Amino acid sequence: MHSKASRGHGIDGPKSAPEQVAAAVVAALEHDEPEVLVDDMTRYVKSILLGPVEKLVLS
């Protein structure tokens, strides 16, 4: 599901496959969703940002 891309503006690691992103965007458009959160990390970050500040931990 993830492809290793060398172009990530200095960020190494797994990248979402373009097909996965496109499918998520199309699904969001079909359901009138205001945003698209494609991967688990993005969904996790969004969830902690919406929650209490005590959940934010600097490491």
Describe the structure.
The protein has 59 residues and is α+β, with helices and mostly antiparallel strands. It has one domain. Helices cover 41% and strands 10% of the residues. It has helices spanning 18-30, 40-50; strands at 2-4, 14-16. Strands 1-2 form a two-stranded antiparallel sheet. The radius of gyration is 14 Å and the shape is flat. The N and C termini lie far apart (28 Å).
**Number of spatially distinct domains:** 1
SSE order: EEHH
Structural class: alpha+beta
Number of strands: 2
What does the main sheet amount to?
Answer: 2 strands, antiparallel
Shape field: flat
What's the average pLDDT? 83
What is the beta-strand fraction? 5-15%
Rg for CA atoms: 14 Å
What order do the strands of the largest sheet run in, or round the barrel if closed?
A: 1-2
Low-confidence runs: none
Percentage of residues assigned to helices: 40-55%
Count of helix runs: 2
Alpha-carbon distance between the two ends:
28 Å
Keywords:
59 residues; alpha+beta; two-stranded antiparallel sheet; flat
In a few lines, what is going on in this structure?
The chain is of the alpha+beta class and 59 residues long. It is built from 2 helices and 2 strands. It has helices at 18-30, 40-50, and strands at 2-4, 14-16.
Draw up the topology in text.
Layout: E1 2-4, E2 14-16, H1 18-30, H2 40-50
Antiparallel strand pairs: 1-2
